[in-house]
Write a sequence for this structure.
């Protein structure tokens, strides 16, 4: 287990300087006064499984900086593991909570699960003191609660960021496997009411995830800065005058022969001059990449068969580029399933007509530098005409939140967290079934050929994020839970 150092970043005054955020900041400062007094003298310990990548690792630093500025004591611990069996198990747990897999777990699984957490326990006990508050995020470190409580008297919260709207045999199987660990928690936090298992409903608070509007992934990028990042990362090749050198590791692209190469190695994408449809996520079957690629291909083929070559609509569809972005496997050693999904997408890409291959770019984003990775995602999103999250299942879907903050229209599936955020035909479109290729293709065509509606949806989306999904609304909910927990101990 390691303690994570959080670097300096935006301060409360920086957020308050934005007119769109001013009221949210003032409300937060007023509402946080009493809860902060209640937890004075306690340290909050956040424990999760990774410091890089994923929603938890993205949200925690900003939350910690804000709370520290208000004199709250908060620290971040990350468990460590070397056993491949542990990564395989926690991935199966993750998938099963989403309803995927068989939901079968064995005593051997439990032994691996508890062993890795027990190996991380000594460091936790060195740091956590009586009267502190511990928050354990997601299934990976879940067994730690019982282990910590045997040694030190502290309230412990379990924060689950994933779930499925309905109960199935698979979800029942995984919750039965996890149930022995739930009894050692004092409170539970889920992202949506429909994600809460029935046995935990009486002791749960709902806190939707939220974004930091001033993080590197979400900060405003002026045109020259946006183009500069695209060049620095290798997405653009040509340049006249750039302030900064290229990154040490560039974005790579899947080439027609299945190898990884420079983005423009065989043919220039003409990135700056085309309408762009983008989905960026981890390589996971539940993200609906395969289905989105199929719908995009159908849109192109239908346009060639039935469109009027002289029309603007025909030309717009003909020019459109699809970006599928995810982590470069060179920087991810603990996700064999992700590499398999990427391999499947590569084979799907290789099988399409060569005339379409330069209309689809599967981009591998380097993870060696979290700031650079965040800026690449930011620049890709801001360059896009439509941002898609075609998830078959989704914990919440902060990629949609990020897009709406950037005034980008979104096309999302009916996964619970996505339809909770997106208002159909107001901030974008909801295509309920992500596997319905016909419907998905039609939604893409409609959005691409109605640019004025896209502009309207983009503005509406940013307003919705400001009202409901910034870190200030989330932090108030957290502080209220902490105060409640302290008052009950």
């Amino acid at each position: 287990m390691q303690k994570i150092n959080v670097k300096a970043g935006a301060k409360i005054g920086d957020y308050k300087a934005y007119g769109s955020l001013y009221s949210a900041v003032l409300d937060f400062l007023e509402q946080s006064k009493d809860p902060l007094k209640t937890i004075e003298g306690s340290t909050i310990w956040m424990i999760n499984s990774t410091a890089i990548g994923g929603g938890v690792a993205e949200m925690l630093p900003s939350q910690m900086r804000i709370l520290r500025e208000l004199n709250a004591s908060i620290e971040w611990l990350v468990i460590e593991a070397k056993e491949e069996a542990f990564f395989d198990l926690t991935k199966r747990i993750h998938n099963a909570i989403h309803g995927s897999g068989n939901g079968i777990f064995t005593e051997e699984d439990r032994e691996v699960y508890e062993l890795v957490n027990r190996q991380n326990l000594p460091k936790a006990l060195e740091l956590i003191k009586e009267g502190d508050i511990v928050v354990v995020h997601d299934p990976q470190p879940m067994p730690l609660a019982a282990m910590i409580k045997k040694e030190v008297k502290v309230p412990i919260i379990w924060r689950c960021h994933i779930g499925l709207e309905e109960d199935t045999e698979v979800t029942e199987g995984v919750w039965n496997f996890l149930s022995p660990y739930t009894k050692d928690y004092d409170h539970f936090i889920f992202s949506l009411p429909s994600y809460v298992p029935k046995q935990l409903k009486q002791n749960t608070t709902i806190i939707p995830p939220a974004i930091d509007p001033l993080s590197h992934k979400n900060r405003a990028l002026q045109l020259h800065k946006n183009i500069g990042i695209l060049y620095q990362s290798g997405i653009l090749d040509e340049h006249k005058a750039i302030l900064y050198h290229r990154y040490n590791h560039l974005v790579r692209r899947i080439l027609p022969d299945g190898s990884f190469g420079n983005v423009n190695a065989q043919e220039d994408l003409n990135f700056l001059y085309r309408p762009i449809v983008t989905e960026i996520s981890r390589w996971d079957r539940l993200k609906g990449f395969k289905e989105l690629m199929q719908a995009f291909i159908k849109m192109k083929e239908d346009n060639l068969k039935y469109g009027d070559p002289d029309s603007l609509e025909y030309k717009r569809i003909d020019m459109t580029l699809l970006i599928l972005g995810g982590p470069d496997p060179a920087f991810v050693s603990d996700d064999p399933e992700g590499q398999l999904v990427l391999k499947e997408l590569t084979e799907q890409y290789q099988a399409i007509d060569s005339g379409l291959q330069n209309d689809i770019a599967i981009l591998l984003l380097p993870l060696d530098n979290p700031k650079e990775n965040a800026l690449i995602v930011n620049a890709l999103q801001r360059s896009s005409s439509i941002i898609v999250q075609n998830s078959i299942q989704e914990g919440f879907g902060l990629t949609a939140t990020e897009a709406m903050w950037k005034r980008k229209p979104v096309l999302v599936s009916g996964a619970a967290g996505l339809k909770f955020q997106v208002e159909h035909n107001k901030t974008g479109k909801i295509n309920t079934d992500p596997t319905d290729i016909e419907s998905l293709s039609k939604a893409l065509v409609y959005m691409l050929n109605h640019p004025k509606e896209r502009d309207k949806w983009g503005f509406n989306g940013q307003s919705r994020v400001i009202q409901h999904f910034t870190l200030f609304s989330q932090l108030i909910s957290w502080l209220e839970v902490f105060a409640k927990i302290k008052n009950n101990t």
